[in-house]
Amino acid sequence: MFTIEELQAAQRLVYGQMQPSAQIAWPQLGQRLGAEVVVKHENHAPTGAFKVRGGITFIDWLKREHPEARGIVTATRGNHGQSQARAATAAGLAAKIYVPEGNSVEKNAAMRAYGGELIVHGADFDDAREEAMRVAAAGDFYPVPPFHTELVRGVATYGFELLTAHPDLDTVYVPIGAGSGICGMIAARDALGLSTRIVGVVSTGAAAAKLSVEAGHLVETNRADTFADGMAVRVPVQAAFDIYSRGAERIVAVTDAEIAAAIRLYFEAVHTVAEGAGAAPLAALMQERETMAGRKVAVVLSGGNIDTDWYRTVLSGGVPLA
After folding, report:
1. Which among 36, 119, 286, 305 has the fewest CB atoms less than 10 Å away?
2. Which among 288, 287, 290, 258 has a CA at the least distance from the CA of 274?
3. Range(s) of the domain holding residue 129
4. How far apart (Å, rounded) are the C-alpha atoms in residues 235 and 218?
5. Does the CA dihedral 203-113-88-7 come out positive or negative?
6. Backbone angles phi, psi at 258, to 5 degrees
7. Are 154 and 262 part of one and the same domain?
8. Rg of the chain on CA atoms, in Å
9. Do residues 184 and 291 share a domain?
10. Are 33 and 261 in contact (CB under 8 A)?
11. How far is CA 291 from CA 174, 286, 288, in A?
12. Are residues 259 and 156 in the same domain?
């Protein structure tokens, strides 16, 4: 998908606004799971999530290729919106951000703080996405879809960091929402010519990507019920599916209870904060611990933006309601 030179060019753009995130082999997790476990800490990125990287590269591309654009319009559950609002505002562009009803209060506040104009529409992400794209088609604000080559090129820099630091990884677990994260990891793996297995992770309540891979074509679901809002997608993206259906070893589904247990383990073992989608890869490794025993594996902690009330519920042993 990208050459090493293209990923290195993306790194130069990204590193103009942020430092590389850490990848740490935590012995506390290794002892619990019987494997060498490396955590890619995208929860320590400037917006608290990996998406910030794609915002940097996308807005740079937009300014060069579409200088007439007054701003951008997009839809999100939070992390993508923070990324786009941050990068657009820094570039002197306006940012209209569509979110569904009942979206994360704290993610909404962060998007506004980064300069985004927040518009609430629809019952879920896909409703908000459809409205955002309709509005974009009718005006002079450029549409930012959930999946785009320039988004993936930026996001791929986190995979490039991880895999150049640990080229001997057996397996990497990556959450799947719209698909930029797992496609970025696949792109980095392929550019480096490595044989690392990449495992996608979805929620059992939002399993469209897994169902699509099993069916061999896109499968939409009627609902996306999970508190892991970064994975709450009903409608898979064809361009992303074309990449992860070929490039991923398999897709694993985890329950919200398993995700909550992984959030607790992150806090108990290494005192780091994970949101639902960020903890899903660890939940999948916990599910597959017998298969992964003795291997060197990585989990992508894609974000740490969990609302306080939900985090309080999880740490007390509960599972937030989606």
Report:
1. 119
2. 258
3. 51-144
4. 8
5. negative
6. -65, -40
7. yes
8. 18
9. yes
10. no
11. 17, 10, 5
12. yes
